[in-house]
Design brief:
The chain is an alpha/beta fold. It folds into two domains: about 140 residues, Alpha-Beta Complex (Aspartate Aminotransferase, domain 1), CATH 3.90.1150; about 240 residues, Type I PLP-dependent aspartate aminotransferase-like (Major domain) (Aspartate Aminotransferase, domain 2). Helices cover about 40% and strands about 15% of the residues. It is built from twelve helices and 15 strands. The longest helix has 28 residues. The chain is globular and about 60 Å long.
Length: about 400
């Protein structure tokens, strides 16, 4: 008899954001016409920048002519885009080869697919609170998961220790959900720890563009020794508004090897087996992000979201609520007021102020008692939500 993957039975009953959507839908059914202030899921509210839109139109026109038509694209990514991304790193002082860069359909897809590179016997460390997919993807694969809790005393930025030893180490900085960012010294400790133990860091850099403090690393490859122990996964979703257009990229240095096997070579083989590449049209649009004009325009959008963060932080300061994040990240992680639990606060804010946030409990057990706000919403909604928060708290 064909057996299903029984590890699916080990997953939680519902995915966090599915559960939120279900509760919101139930509220709307009983409160028709009520406007909700959505600061839960990290979806962007601003359109793609003009440089990208222009490039997308040009790419569509290319497809209308036999001379400029593109069919299948190279599975690791179009050479023009791989080169543009590598050059973007080089301008920031990170020496990468074009061949170190792989284009993907998005960081979320890649975070799951990348596990193909690792034997199922490998253990995975998840620093919690954490993006739930880190845990779920490894539960599905049947891996042993090491849960490393972090808390307010460390600013949700734990140091490596004996209890953190595992084969695969997930690090997200700026962090989702806490908004905390590892300093250069703190991240170097993790790189040294990984090299010492033969581990590999999966570095989720989806929010690196929100770092405004120049002393903080935006790429793990700014750290000495990272090329022999790290894979970096990045996204254009929040950086350039590609949540609905879908594109990300992964950096796998050719120096990264284990048991005489090159992870760069393995990933080429994986992509040529499992994908047919990302659409030419989308890749042409993304290439515009890495032009001088594209960078200027996306910085304007990022500044808009960071102003949203400032407005929300001002409200929390006025209410005397503890939080972290916001300054170098698009998320604000706050301590639940009035001794509430995280789902209790979710229901209270929804009922009393029509504000939708994200309960901390489902980011890991140490997330209970905390709550996440996303700053990707509409400005007018953010201003009104902040007013309501001050009034309530």
């Amino acid at each position: 008899m064909t057996m299903p993957n029984m590890h699916y039975a080990d997953l939680k009953d519902s995915y966090l954001f599915f559960h939120i959507a279900r509760k919101v839908r139930a509220y709307q059914e009983t409160h028709p016409g009520v406007h909700l202030y959505r600061m839960g899921i990290g979806d962007v509210s601003l359109p793609l920048c003009d440089a990208v839109i222009k490039a997308l139109h040009e790419a569509v026109d290319d497809q209308a002519s036999k001379e400029s038509f593109h069919g299948y694209m190279p599975e690791p990514g179009a050479p023009f885009l791989r080169s543009a991304i590598a050059e973007h790193y080089r301008r920031r002082g990170v020496d990468l080869s074009d061949e170190d860069v792989f284009v993907s359909s998005g960081a979320s897809d890649e975070l799951g697919d990348i596990l193909d590179l690792f034997d199922r016997s490998n253990s995975a460390l998840v620093i919690e609170p954490a993006y739930p997919a880190y845990v779920d993807a490894n539960v599905i694969a049947g891996r042993r998961i090491v849960h490393l809790s972090s808390g307010r005393e460390s600013g949700f930025l734990p140091s490596p220790s004996a209890e953190a030893k595992a084969d695969i180490l997930y690090i997200c900085s700026p962090n989702n959900p806490t908004g905390a960012v590892f300093s250069r010294k703190q991240l170097q400790e993790w790189v040294d720890f990984a090299n010492k133990n033969g581990s590999i860091i999966l570095f989720d850099a989806a929010y690196e563009a929100f770092i405004e403090d120049s002393s903080l690393p935006r790429s793990i490859f700014e750290l000495e020794g990272a090329k022999t122990c790290a894979i970096e996964i990045c996204s254009l979703s929040k950086t350039a508004g590609f949540t609905g257009t879908r594109l990300g990229y992964t950096v796998i240095p050719r120096e990264l090897k284990r048991s005489n096997m090159s992870f760069n070579d393995m990933w080429i083989r994986n992509r040529t087996t499992k994908t047919n590449g990302v659409s030419y049209i989308i890749q042409k649009g993304v290439a515009a992000v890495f032009t001088q004009e594209g960078q200027r325009q996306i910085r304007e959008n990022i500044a808009y979201y960071k102003e949203n963060a400032r407005i929300l932080m001002e409200a929390l300061d006025a209410a005397g609520v503890w939080y972290c994040g916001g300054k170098n990240a698009p998320y604000i992680w706050l301590a639940c007021p009035k001794g509430m639990g995280s789902w209790e606060l979710f229901d209270w804010l929804l009922e009393k102020a029509q504000i939708v946030g994200t309960p901390g409990e489902d980011f890991g057990s140490c997330g209970e008692g905390y709550f996440r706000f996303s700053t990707f919403g509409d400005r007018a909604d953010t201003v009104e939500a902040a007013r309501r928060l001050k009034e309530l708290l």
